[in-house]
Amino acid sequence: MMSLSDLPALTIADLQSHLRRKEISPSEVIESLRARIEQVEPKIDAYLSIDFDAALKEADRVNVDLPLGGVPIAVKDLINVAGQPCTCGSKILGNYRSPYDASVIQRLRAAGAIPLGKTNMDEFAMGSSTENSSFKVTRNPWDVLRVPGGSSGGSAAAVAADAAIAGLGTDTGGSIRQPASLSGVVGVKPSYGRVSRFGVTAFASSLDQVGPLTKTVRDAAMIMNAMAGHDRHDSTSLPDPVPDYTKDLGRDLKGMKLGVPKEYRVEGIHPQISSAVNAAIKQLESLGAEIVHLSLPHTDYGIAVYYFIATAEASANLARFDGVRYGYRAKNANDLLDHYGRARGEGFGEEVKRRIILGTYVLSSGYYDAYYVRAQKVRELIRQDFVNAFEKCDAIISPTSPEPAFKLGERTANPLAMYLADIFTNTANLAGICGISVPCGFAKVNGSQLPIGLQILGKSLDEERIFQIAHAYEQSTDWHKAKPPLPARLNA
Amino acid sequence: MATSTDLDVGYVSKLARLNLTEEETKRFQKQLADVLKYAEKLGEVDVSSVEAAAHGVPMFNVFREDQPCDWFTADEALSNAPAKANQLFVVTKVVE
């Protein structure tokens, strides 16, 4: 018999078999998470708001035989959940309540999932540490003096700490994969257009994707089964049929060609990450995969291209925050310009302002061609690199992050150093391809065990392949079973 | 390629309708100069034969049927308004 205090640590797949055998009820799952959240939240601060009453009401009438029936899912606080706050980690939306569900939430509800809690994030998803939140700093469950990664750091930390069964994030340059790597969980960035963004606050519209953060690859595939697919409310969502992403889980890797790009063996990569990833590559070989060495020659330009394109798009997307229809409004504005300038100047945090300035600059008359258009052209070369690489291999292997979790406050004064955290992740967003981060070991740093993530990149719409590879690797190792040094589960 | 010293944060903040304090203006001037200097490497790339890509996945002219459906009521649309009256958003005076 399952003890209630064991429930928060379960995977979706295990939780469901207990639910379907009626050994536990959906409301007991919510209550067990409430107890776990009360226990660990003072240490990690992963959530911005949680409405247990709303979740319990849904739990009462949910059908556990649905694909995600009775499974609670934590939601990054820029995805609209009807009736709940949606702050985007920003003071400018401090009092905002969502009047509607994002399409991904509608789909997850239709599959029986229960949204539970809105998770902390870097303001408007701009950051790699979750320190740019207007409200609180989330800490890494593996070492509470370190960052969980970002911008989806709240969801990553909650899943890692068993304070959530699974979570949702968004990935614009690595914001799902990098926190997954630093917090020791699985994180997926779907192909561009695979998942609807309707109801998800836009950061950079040619890059953003919604994806899952989970304890296992199978759980991520199950969430993608429910979330992916065309949405008439998002003109960038692709009409291609959605396969069953769990179908190839368990298939071996015989004949699979995995590319290892030489550009991802850069100087400055943490030595323990290099050795963990090398060991993972050997492991994949022992599972039957063939390793192909190849080149992605324009990799080194990724960060520069990304910061021009992402900030340009952000400066346009964030123009909607004008203090008129919703959000913060400064008192006693003299005129309309004063109204806009103060609503935005007082409402936005520092990193958001910095990026709006950079984005406005690269789009401004006289600089547009030199910065923005040139960046778009180099982006096309980066995309071509991947097209060429995928002629030689089925998927590409790399570290997710060049470093394990860094200390709180270590990078906040140096934006450029923070931007370099995305060096291995953001080219996938620029090229529109899919990627996953899966735990592949630990770095021992000053007495702490810090998780390391292995990144597997696949062709656009080839999520099945990266799930198959990640699952085969995960199941042949014990990394995903390790738990962070938090208080043990309460006795029920 | 423009040089990084061209950036005038004070001027750009006016274009962006974003008030900055003097201290922020100074700090961003320095930090963004560093970012622009780092990005100068884009000038090395030969892009003479490349078409600019707006998206990783090319998509053009996506249409859908124009079907009326129920959407927000006025009350719902106004539910987050910082100021409202008579089912309307109240804004700062625009015309003298």
Explain what this protein looks like in three dimensions.
With 492 residues, chain A is α/β, with parallel strands linked by helices. Chain A has two domains: 4-285 and 397-481, Amidase signature (AS) domain (Amidase signature (AS) enzymes), CATH 3.90.1300.10; 299-382, no CATH class. Chain A is built from 15 helices and eleven strands. In chain A, helix 7 (217-227) runs antiparallel to helix 15 (463-475), helix 9 (302-317) packs across helix 11 and helix 9 crosses helix 12 (368-389). The two termini of chain A are 13 Å apart. Chain B is mainly alpha-helical and 96 residues long. Chain B is 30% helix and 4% strand. Chain B is built from three helices and two strands. The relative contact order of chain B is 0.08.
Could you give a quick summary of the protein structure above?
The complex is a heterodimer of chains A (492) and B (96). Chain A is built from 15 helices and eleven strands.
Q: Keyphrases for this structure?
A:
heterodimer, A: alpha/beta, Amidase signature (AS) enzymes, 2 domains, eleven-stranded mixed beta sheet, 36% helix, 14% strand, B: 96 residues, two-stranded antiparallel ribbon, flat
Helix content of chain B: 25-40%
- Largest sheet descriptor of chain B: 2 strands, antiparallel
User: Taking all residues together, what is the mean pLDDT of chain A?
Assistant: 96
Rounded to an integer in angstroms, the radius of gyration calculated over CA atoms of chain A is 21 Å
Count of individual domains of chain A: 2
Structural class of chain B: mainly alpha
Q: How do the strands and helices of this protein lay out in sequence?
A:
The complex is a heterodimer of chains A (492) and B (96).
Chain A: H1 12-20, H2 26-44, E1 47-49, H3 52-61, E2 72-76, H4 103-110, E3 114-119, H5 153-160, E4 166-171, H6 177-183, E5 186-189, E6 209-214, H7 217-227, E7 257-261, H8 271-286, E8 290-294, H9 302-317, H10 336-347, H11 350-363, H12 368-389, E9 395-399, H13 415-419, H14 426-431, E10 434-445, E11 448-458, H15 463-475
Parallel strand pairs in A: 2-3, 2-4, 7-8, 7-9
Antiparallel strand pairs in A: 1-3, 4-6, 5-6, 5-10, 9-11, 10-11
Helix pairs in contact in A: 2-3, 7-15, 9-11, 9-12
Chain B: H1 9-15, H2 22-39, H3 74-77, E1 84-85, E2 88-89
Antiparallel strand pairs in B: 1-2
